[in-house]
Model the fold of this input.
Amino acid sequence: MKRRQILTFLGIAVASLLLAVCSTLIVPSAVTAQSNVTLLVSAAASLKDTLEEIKPLYQQSKPNVNMNYNFGASGALQQQIEQGAPADIFISAAQKQLAALEQKGLLLPGTRSVLAKNRLVLVVPKNITGITSFYNLKESKIKRIAIGEPRSVPAGQYAQQVLQKLDIWPQVTKKLVYANNVRQVLAAVESGNADAGLVYATDAKISDKVKVVVAADDKYHSPIVYPMAVVKRSKNTTAAKEFAQFLSSNEAKAVLKKYGFLLP
Done:
């Protein structure tokens, strides 16, 4: 009888030991798998420098969260998400793109907010003189004007609105050179491939090859805002929400202000 009790006791002890060992081996790996997250943020091209600087700041407190960025024209990024391309967070340079995704049920409810605001400015290469207003764009010495493609680039939509409000759209249409995003507009002016261009104030701020002629009056275009939201298909919604929340922190706001963005 005693032998049977001893064997039973030993069996229970061995089973308990195996269970403890298995728990030790399995649980940490599960925690590790959950803590190592890679977020994909699809964002308007004009946010590139700002978000690149914010990334290491965020990773100081979240070292297990890696972030990859997909920068481009807001309209193109919207289409990518609609077609099923992976993305955890979408930050647009206009409300239109997020509104379209929201109507199609592609955004996580309750996560939409405004990150920042911006201004539209007319820029020319630094060596060009005699340009003081938008009306100079009608003159013969201005042969190429770069703007974003209005159908997909918010900066191009704002540019079109301004030129139409000033009643100079018909006179400058043949001079327009369309770019796939606002950074390409900036590059065209920097290189001299365009005599002038319409970009965001934040784009002009990072360049030492262009100068700002004038800022467009806000009444001539739709509000320039940068809305953001978590994409509903995201497999990392908790981490995405946390990063979106960080973008509204004082630390992130300081970087936004550094690059010339206006806070909402």
Summary: Residues 110 and 233 are 15 Å apart (CA to CA). The two ends are 80 Å apart (CA to CA). The first strand starts at residue 37 and ends at 44. Strands lie at 37-44, 65-72, 89-91, 113-117, 120-125, 145-148, 176-179, 196-200, 210-215, 225-230.
